[in-house]
Amino acid sequence: MTGKTSPKTSLLQQIHAFDLALNRGTLKQVREMLNTLPPGDVAYILQSTPPKNRKLLWALIEDEQGHEVLQYLDEEVRTTLVSEMKATELASIVEHLDTDDLADLLQELPDAVIQEVLGLMKAQDRERVEAVLSYPEESAGGLMNTDTLTVRPDVTVEVVLRYLQLQGEIPEHTDQLFVVDRVDHYLGSIHVTKLLTQKPTTPVKDIMEPVEVILASLPQGEVAQFFERHNLISAPVVNDEGKLLGRITIDDILNVVRDEAEHSLMGMAGLGEFDTFAPILTSTRRRAIWLGINLLTAIIAAGVIKIFEHTLEQVVALAVLMPVVASMGGIAGTQTLMLVIRAMALGQVRGSNVGWLFNKELMVGVLNGFLWAVVMGGVAVIWFDNLPLGFIIAAALTLNLVVAAFSGVCLPLLLRKLKIDPAVSGGVILTTITDVVGFFLFLGLGTVFLL
């Protein structure tokens, strides 16, 4: 390969080369290529490969490369690959993983496999993993890594520096050391840069800083907000008694943010899958559920239209204009819904400001309703030469946009209270509401004033 290419172009060329080598059966060349690439690139290639070739590529990856590749794979792809491995094979790969990554991996497996893998691990490693597994997966305790560097408050900077030198290697993303007492209660932190600028005889207690801690029970979404507000690289995790349990680092938070963004985006389309190359039957089964739900809501909306069958037979113009009212309501409601869901995810929606948000969105709905009602009313009058029809669609459009704003605010709040993810189900429910209300208002007003 000659010439200067972008990293993305180079990787795409690598994928093409893999495909050619696999088709030709030159597995030795594929193995060499796989095990010389960075783990993140290998993960990208695996996720860009259909299931049959993906399994073949995974089998060609060496163990020391495989444990790093696992950390970069999407959960669904990783689970598929790992679920087909024997416990002994899995144990040989995962022994090199960080505690938090290993806990995430094990939580995707059946209980029997988890116990078998834990039984093959060293006692100290097993205790660390079990400590993380004891907390919910989407909590600070489930995110944390137990690999921390701790010091006592009464030692000097010189002692701490010697301690670090003896370690030989420190954990990734270590920007601070945690100060604890003899029973591991968290007291404060020392930034590594501060250690390098202090006199060797300075006691740790004189330079440690009180850093806010994260409770192990805190939901991962709030942990991400905590990192954003305080611009952190790492943070200590403690239990209710203040005992240091581990730490969370910025790479964990990036994964949380990415996963939640993907979950919301895919959920709005009713997709529960994240593997583009998932098997056909698997994808069909997952999508069929939401297609069935959508069909049910469409039948409900059609049922409302059926009620006004006689009206539609008499005034054909109503059938022509009917989709406009429902469509405008759906778009307006979705705008409000997404705004509120985002604010909820950022923790910005509270009891004290819900009323203001509700009134604001209601007024936006009213103003936009009046604006586009005038426009559409004028279009209807010119198009069909029917003044009452113009007033009817204007009134229906305004009322539906108000209903859309009301639903866009209240629906995600109600779903959250019912412990249902509004990002997944909110869009389907809201569309049903705006369709049903839009059809009912427009056709109902048409029945009253045109017949």
Secondary structure blueprint with pairings:
Blueprint: H1 7-24, H2 27-34, H3 39-47, H4 51-60, H5 63-72, H6 75-83, H7 87-94, H8 99-106, H9 111-119, H10 123-133, H11 140-143, E1 150-151, H12 157-167, E2 176-180, E3 186-191, H13 192-195, H14 204-207, E4 214-215, H15 220-230, E5 234-238, E6 244-249, H16 250-268, H17 280-307, H18 309-314, H19 316-345, H20 354-384, H21 387-417, H22 422-450
Parallel strand pairs: 1-2, 4-5
Antiparallel strand pairs: 2-3, 5-6
Structure, briefly:
With 451 residues, the protein is mainly alpha-helical.
Structure write-up:
It is a single chain. With about 450 residues, the chain is mostly helical. It folds into three domains: about 5-140, MgtE N-terminal fold; about 150-250, CBS-domain; about 280-450, Tetracycline Repressor, domain 2, CATH 1.10.357.20. Helices cover about 70% and strands about 5% of the residues. Helix 16 (about 250-270) runs parallel beside helix 22 (about 420-450) and helix 21 packs antiparallel against helix 22 (about 420-450). The longest helix is centred in the C-terminal third of the chain and has 31 residues, at about 355-385. It starts with 6 loop residues before the first helix and ends with a helix.
